[in-house]
Amino acid sequence: MIEGKRVAVVLPAYNAEKTLEATVRELSPLVDIKILVDDSSTDGTAKLAQELGLQVFVHDRNYGYGRNQQTCYREALASGADIVVMLHPDYQYNPALVPALASMIACGNCDVALGSRILGGGALRGGMPLYKYISNRALTAFENLLLGAKLSEYHTGYRAFSREVLLALPLLENSDDFVFDNEVLAQVLFFDFRIGEISCPARYFEEASSINFSRSVRYGFGVLGTSLKFFLQKLGVLRFRIFKKTGRKLDLNYYSLGVREVAATRV
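^ thats the sequence. predicted structure below, dont judge the formating
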Protein backbone atom coordinates (compact mmCIF):
# COMPACT_ATOMS: atom_id res chain seq x y z
CA MET A 1 0.00 0.00 0.00
CA ILE A 2 1.27 3.48 -0.90
CA GLU A 3 -0.24 6.65 0.58
CA GLY A 4 -3.22 4.58 1.69
CA LYS A 5 -3.80 3.29 -1.86
CA ARG A 6 -4.00 -0.44 -2.62
CA VAL A 7 -1.54 -1.30 -5.39
CA ALA A 8 -2.05 -4.16 -7.83
CA VAL A 9 0.45 -5.51 -10.34
CA VAL A 10 -1.06 -7.27 -13.33
CA LEU A 11 0.95 -9.54 -15.62
CA PRO A 12 -0.55 -10.22 -19.07
CA ALA A 13 1.17 -13.48 -19.96
CA TYR A 14 1.61 -15.80 -22.91
CA ASN A 15 4.30 -18.49 -22.73
CA ALA A 16 6.20 -16.58 -20.02
CA GLU A 17 7.39 -19.60 -18.00
CA LYS A 18 11.11 -18.92 -18.52
CA THR A 19 11.09 -15.35 -17.17
CA LEU A 20 8.10 -15.22 -14.82
CA GLU A 21 9.86 -16.23 -11.60
CA ALA A 22 12.63 -13.64 -12.01
CA THR A 23 10.00 -10.95 -12.57
CA VAL A 24 7.85 -11.90 -9.58
CA ARG A 25 10.79 -12.34 -7.16
CA GLU A 26 11.77 -8.68 -7.62
CA LEU A 27 8.34 -7.21 -6.94
CA SER A 28 8.16 -4.88 -3.94
CA PRO A 29 6.39 -5.94 -0.71
CA LEU A 30 4.39 -2.71 -1.12
CA VAL A 31 2.36 -4.51 -3.80
CA ASP A 32 -0.95 -5.65 -2.32
CA ILE A 33 -2.37 -7.65 -5.22
CA LYS A 34 -0.53 -9.76 -7.81
CA ILE A 35 -2.52 -11.04 -10.76
CA LEU A 36 -1.45 -13.03 -13.81
CA VAL A 37 -3.76 -13.59 -16.77
CA ASP A 38 -2.64 -16.45 -18.99
CA ASP A 39 -3.85 -16.08 -22.57
CA SER A 40 -4.03 -19.85 -23.12
CA SER A 41 -0.28 -20.48 -23.06
CA THR A 42 1.20 -23.73 -24.37
CA ASP A 43 3.88 -23.90 -21.64
CA GLY A 44 3.73 -24.06 -17.85
CA THR A 45 3.06 -20.36 -17.22
CA ALA A 46 -0.18 -20.84 -15.27
CA LYS A 47 1.20 -23.65 -13.10
CA LEU A 48 4.31 -21.67 -12.20
CA ALA A 49 2.23 -18.59 -11.41
CA GLN A 50 0.18 -20.69 -9.00
CA GLU A 51 3.33 -21.91 -7.28
CA LEU A 52 4.54 -18.31 -6.93
CA GLY A 53 1.35 -17.40 -5.10
CA LEU A 54 -0.23 -15.18 -7.75
CA GLN A 55 -3.92 -14.85 -8.44
CA VAL A 56 -4.18 -16.68 -11.75
CA PHE A 57 -6.83 -16.35 -14.45
CA VAL A 58 -6.70 -18.43 -17.61
CA HIS A 59 -8.40 -17.64 -20.92
CA ASP A 60 -10.17 -20.57 -22.55
CA ARG A 61 -8.39 -19.70 -25.81
CA ASN A 62 -5.83 -17.24 -27.13
CA TYR A 63 -7.77 -13.97 -27.40
CA GLY A 64 -4.82 -11.61 -27.88
CA TYR A 65 -2.72 -9.13 -25.93
CA GLY A 66 -5.37 -6.42 -25.77
CA ARG A 67 -8.06 -8.74 -24.46
CA ASN A 68 -5.58 -10.09 -21.92
CA GLN A 69 -5.08 -6.60 -20.53
CA GLN A 70 -8.82 -6.04 -20.31
CA THR A 71 -9.09 -9.12 -18.10
CA CYS A 72 -6.10 -7.96 -16.04
CA TYR A 73 -7.69 -4.59 -15.28
CA ARG A 74 -11.13 -6.02 -14.63
CA GLU A 75 -9.81 -8.52 -12.08
CA ALA A 76 -7.55 -5.95 -10.39
CA LEU A 77 -10.46 -3.54 -9.95
CA ALA A 78 -12.68 -6.36 -8.70
CA SER A 79 -9.98 -7.12 -6.09
CA GLY A 80 -10.19 -3.55 -4.77
CA ALA A 81 -7.10 -1.99 -6.35
CA ASP A 82 -6.76 1.81 -6.29
CA ILE A 83 -3.69 1.80 -8.56
CA VAL A 84 -2.99 -0.85 -11.18
CA VAL A 85 0.50 -1.35 -12.61
CA MET A 86 0.78 -3.38 -15.81
CA LEU A 87 4.13 -5.15 -16.11
CA HIS A 88 5.18 -7.60 -18.82
CA PRO A 89 6.33 -10.86 -17.19
CA ASP A 90 9.26 -11.24 -19.61
CA TYR A 91 11.78 -9.55 -17.27
CA GLN A 92 12.48 -6.86 -19.85
CA TYR A 93 11.45 -4.08 -17.43
CA ASN A 94 12.74 -3.61 -13.87
CA PRO A 95 10.05 -4.86 -11.44
CA ALA A 96 11.60 -2.82 -8.59
CA LEU A 97 10.22 0.36 -10.18
CA VAL A 98 6.60 -0.54 -9.43
CA PRO A 99 6.52 1.63 -6.25
CA ALA A 100 7.96 4.59 -8.16
CA LEU A 101 5.27 4.37 -10.85
CA ALA A 102 2.49 3.85 -8.31
CA SER A 103 3.73 6.72 -6.14
CA MET A 104 3.36 9.19 -8.99
CA ILE A 105 -0.36 8.42 -8.97
CA ALA A 106 -0.77 7.97 -5.21
CA CYS A 107 0.74 11.40 -4.56
CA GLY A 108 -1.64 13.03 -7.03
CA ASN A 109 1.02 14.05 -9.57
CA CYS A 110 -0.66 12.25 -12.47
CA ASP A 111 -3.41 9.80 -13.40
CA VAL A 112 -1.25 7.54 -15.56
CA ALA A 113 2.48 6.83 -15.20
CA LEU A 114 4.75 5.28 -17.82
CA GLY A 115 8.13 3.55 -17.50
CA SER A 116 9.99 4.99 -20.50
CA ARG A 117 12.85 3.13 -22.17
CA ILE A 118 13.84 6.31 -24.00
CA LEU A 119 14.30 8.69 -21.06
CA GLY A 120 17.91 8.47 -19.89
CA GLY A 121 19.10 7.14 -23.24
CA GLY A 122 19.38 3.52 -22.13
CA ALA A 123 17.28 1.80 -24.82
CA LEU A 124 20.12 0.96 -27.19
CA ARG A 125 22.51 0.15 -24.35
CA GLY A 126 19.92 -2.31 -23.06
CA GLY A 127 19.92 -4.08 -26.41
CA MET A 128 16.90 -2.60 -28.19
CA PRO A 129 17.28 -3.47 -31.89
CA LEU A 130 18.17 -0.42 -33.95
CA TYR A 131 15.15 -0.73 -36.25
CA LYS A 132 12.85 -0.82 -33.21
CA TYR A 133 14.55 2.23 -31.72
CA ILE A 134 14.24 4.22 -34.94
CA SER A 135 10.59 3.25 -35.46
CA ASN A 136 9.84 4.02 -31.80
CA ARG A 137 11.27 7.52 -32.11
CA ALA A 138 9.57 8.19 -35.47
CA LEU A 139 6.16 6.97 -34.31
CA THR A 140 6.45 8.90 -31.05
CA ALA A 141 7.27 12.13 -32.91
CA PHE A 142 4.24 11.62 -35.17
CA GLU A 143 1.99 10.89 -32.19
CA ASN A 144 3.17 13.91 -30.22
CA LEU A 145 2.39 16.07 -33.23
CA LEU A 146 -1.16 14.77 -33.74
CA LEU A 147 -2.06 14.12 -30.09
CA GLY A 148 -0.61 17.39 -28.82
CA ALA A 149 1.52 15.76 -26.12
CA LYS A 150 5.24 15.62 -25.28
CA LEU A 151 5.86 12.02 -24.24
CA SER A 152 9.24 10.36 -24.73
CA GLU A 153 7.55 7.13 -25.90
CA TYR A 154 4.10 5.60 -26.30
CA HIS A 155 5.16 1.99 -26.71
CA THR A 156 6.34 0.87 -23.28
CA GLY A 157 4.90 -2.26 -21.67
CA TYR A 158 5.29 -0.77 -18.18
CA ARG A 159 2.46 1.53 -17.14
CA ALA A 160 0.35 2.43 -14.11
CA PHE A 161 -3.25 3.64 -13.96
CA SER A 162 -5.51 5.07 -11.30
CA ARG A 163 -8.74 3.20 -10.64
CA GLU A 164 -10.68 6.22 -11.90
CA VAL A 165 -8.95 6.14 -15.29
CA LEU A 166 -9.59 2.44 -15.86
CA LEU A 167 -13.27 2.85 -15.03
CA ALA A 168 -13.68 5.96 -17.18
CA LEU A 169 -12.05 4.83 -20.45
CA PRO A 170 -14.09 2.87 -23.05
CA LEU A 171 -11.49 0.08 -23.02
CA LEU A 172 -13.82 -2.50 -24.50
CA GLU A 173 -13.92 -0.53 -27.75
CA ASN A 174 -10.21 -1.17 -28.28
CA SER A 175 -8.35 -3.77 -30.32
CA ASP A 176 -7.57 -7.24 -28.99
CA ASP A 177 -4.11 -6.97 -30.59
CA PHE A 178 -0.94 -5.08 -29.62
CA VAL A 179 -2.24 -1.68 -30.76
CA PHE A 180 -4.48 -1.80 -27.66
CA ASP A 181 -1.59 -0.19 -25.74
CA ASN A 182 -1.52 2.76 -28.09
CA GLU A 183 -5.29 3.18 -28.15
CA VAL A 184 -5.35 3.38 -24.36
CA LEU A 185 -2.85 6.25 -24.24
CA ALA A 186 -4.73 8.07 -27.00
CA GLN A 187 -7.90 7.71 -24.92
CA VAL A 188 -6.11 8.96 -21.80
CA LEU A 189 -5.06 12.11 -23.65
CA PHE A 190 -8.41 12.54 -25.41
CA PHE A 191 -10.26 12.55 -22.08
CA ASP A 192 -7.71 14.95 -20.54
CA PHE A 193 -6.11 12.70 -17.93
CA ARG A 194 -2.56 13.54 -16.83
CA ILE A 195 0.40 11.35 -17.88
CA GLY A 196 3.80 11.24 -16.17
CA GLU A 197 6.97 9.33 -17.07
CA ILE A 198 10.00 7.89 -15.32
CA SER A 199 13.15 6.41 -16.83
CA CYS A 200 13.13 2.62 -17.05
CA PRO A 201 16.09 1.03 -18.87
CA ALA A 202 15.00 -2.21 -20.53
CA ARG A 203 16.77 -5.52 -21.01
CA TYR A 204 16.70 -7.34 -24.35
CA PHE A 205 17.67 -11.01 -24.36
CA GLU A 206 16.62 -14.24 -26.04
CA GLU A 207 13.86 -15.18 -23.60
CA ALA A 208 12.31 -11.69 -23.51
CA SER A 209 9.10 -11.51 -25.54
CA SER A 210 9.10 -9.44 -28.69
CA ILE A 211 6.79 -9.27 -31.67
CA ASN A 212 8.35 -10.17 -35.01
CA PHE A 213 9.05 -7.75 -37.85
CA SER A 214 5.79 -8.30 -39.73
CA ARG A 215 3.69 -7.80 -36.61
CA SER A 216 5.78 -4.74 -35.75
CA VAL A 217 4.89 -3.27 -39.14
CA ARG A 218 1.21 -4.00 -38.55
CA TYR A 219 1.46 -2.42 -35.12
CA GLY A 220 3.09 0.67 -36.64
CA PHE A 221 0.25 1.16 -39.11
CA GLY A 222 -2.21 0.69 -36.24
CA VAL A 223 -0.44 3.44 -34.30
CA LEU A 224 -0.67 5.79 -37.28
CA GLY A 225 -4.36 4.99 -37.63
CA THR A 226 -5.07 5.66 -33.95
CA SER A 227 -3.31 9.02 -34.11
CA LEU A 228 -5.26 10.05 -37.20
CA LYS A 229 -8.55 9.04 -35.56
CA PHE A 230 -7.67 11.16 -32.52
CA PHE A 231 -6.78 14.16 -34.69
CA LEU A 232 -9.88 13.93 -36.88
CA GLN A 233 -12.20 13.56 -33.91
CA LYS A 234 -10.61 16.54 -32.16
CA LEU A 235 -11.23 18.55 -35.35
CA GLY A 236 -14.85 17.40 -35.36
CA VAL A 237 -14.49 15.87 -38.83
CA LEU A 238 -15.28 12.25 -37.87
CA ARG A 239 -16.27 10.30 -34.78
CA PHE A 240 -14.83 6.99 -33.60
CA ARG A 241 -16.04 4.47 -31.04
CA ILE A 242 -12.75 4.39 -29.12
CA PHE A 243 -13.23 8.07 -28.22
CA LYS A 244 -16.93 7.79 -27.38
CA LYS A 245 -17.47 8.80 -23.76
CA THR A 246 -20.42 6.42 -23.47
CA GLY A 247 -18.53 3.57 -25.14
CA ARG A 248 -18.23 0.11 -23.58
CA LYS A 249 -16.29 0.15 -20.34
CA LEU A 250 -14.97 -2.57 -18.03
CA ASP A 251 -17.67 -4.55 -16.25
CA LEU A 252 -17.72 -7.60 -14.00
CA ASN A 253 -19.47 -9.97 -16.41
CA TYR A 254 -17.64 -9.34 -19.67
CA TYR A 255 -15.32 -12.34 -19.34
CA SER A 256 -17.46 -14.65 -17.26
CA LEU A 257 -17.69 -17.23 -20.08
CA GLY A 258 -14.09 -17.03 -21.28
CA VAL A 259 -12.00 -16.94 -18.12
CA ARG A 260 -11.47 -19.32 -15.26
CA GLU A 261 -9.66 -18.58 -12.00
CA VAL A 262 -6.98 -20.98 -10.82
CA ALA A 263 -6.37 -21.28 -7.08
CA ALA A 264 -2.86 -20.25 -6.06
CA THR A 265 -0.56 -22.59 -4.16
CA ARG A 266 2.60 -21.41 -2.46
CA VAL A 267 5.89 -23.31 -2.48
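The radius of gyration is 17 Å.
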